[in-house]
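Supplementary Note 3. Input sequence used for the single-chain structure prediction.
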Amino acid sequence: MMMKIQDTLSGRKKSLLKSKKGALKLFVCGPTVYDYIHIGNARTFIVFDALVKYLRSQGYKIFYLQNITDIDDKIIRRAEENNTTPKEIAVSFEKAFLEDMQKLGVDATTKYARATDYIPEIAGQVQTLVKKGFAYKIEGDGYYFDIAKSRDYGKLAKRTREQAQDATSRIDESVRKRNKGDFNLWKFRQEGEPSWETPLGRGRPGWHIEDTAITEHHFGPQYDIHGGGRDLIFPHHEAEIAQQESASGKKPFVRIWTHIGFVTVNGEKMSKSLGNFITVREFLKKHPPDILRFLVLAHHYPKPLDYTEKTAEAARHSLETIKEFLGKTKLAVNSGVKKPLPPALFKIGSYAKEFQNASNDDFNTPKAIAAIFSLISKLQKMVWRMNPTQAQTAAKFIKDSLKAMGLAIKVPKIPLGIRQLADRREQLRNEGRFGPADKFRKKIENLGYEVEDTPIGTYIKP
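The predicted structure, written as discrete structure tokens, is reproduced below.
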């Protein structure tokens, strides 16, 4: 089954074809580095990291580009609050962002592109828009995009041009604009703000223009997939379409638009004033990274995800179930069982097909993960009857499937001392000395481990 992804613009699923000429081109909006990222930001980055890893496991070549907004009103404001420079703020939080990504195992990105490294490209694209009549200059202010010149402005968000007048950021505010919804492309130098000398005059880029300048530089005027959170559909992605299609005269700018659903906390939007704003760093103080990754993949990416401590606990329990089953298959590999389970009871192929079909159908990760749990549920009671080859086959399918989405499941190692205690207990049991054996069980439990007596030996787990 060919991979299909839901396209926000058309409202239908579109096929991803493997390119014979080169890699598929994917761009995802990265962070504005003025603060630590929160779990809502992390969801977007985890989803696309998992998608890219899965596609690569299926033989796709992907160039995954992500920008880093390192000049912005928010960065300037944070610098003023901390009595430092915008550059120092940007450098500090970019470092923090990359550290968070490393901890979460988000490492599929081919290239990170800082906005300030593309000032000539940004200025060049603004000049093109001015030359073609899509942008205009306001003296002492900057250059703005004239949305009245873009006939289908609002098509991504399904808004008319009149409805598209109601969302502008602070940098876009100006009483001298032609249309309320016109957005800033280049802001002329303001006292105390970072600025760059260009043919447009000394200043800094608007928010939307940096992305199209970066993607045009690396991908050209058209490419395959553009992703980001749902909050970016309007006005950010709408503005990107208007800029690039107006500058190049080519449509569509992007073949597939992919947007990730919102994350709420206990049913409410995250807000510092409500005290429910959870940064990745705060999350990782309480939970290991694979909990957040599993939690994200257990929900289909376009839908909302409501985070609670119960959902985190459910993710932990699910991971423990997988690890426990893999631990049991490891014991079964060394069991020496010769007679295999009948083929009718051991159908890995059907679950593998179910996993792949779900993954290929709009990257439905919860359905794909459900296929793995269906297999575990079926084999759980028969695990001690599997011969070593079957145990290896089942474990490999589970590990490889989850690894394809960036979930590296590791069976906990049991310390030598614990294994020695379990061996001594087993020896006592074989001698019929069940009282002393039970004392060893309790000793093992006090050290944080459990023992389970199975038909093929003692199974130990944390």
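The chain has 14 helices and 16 strands. Residues 82 and 89 are 9 Å apart (CA to CA).
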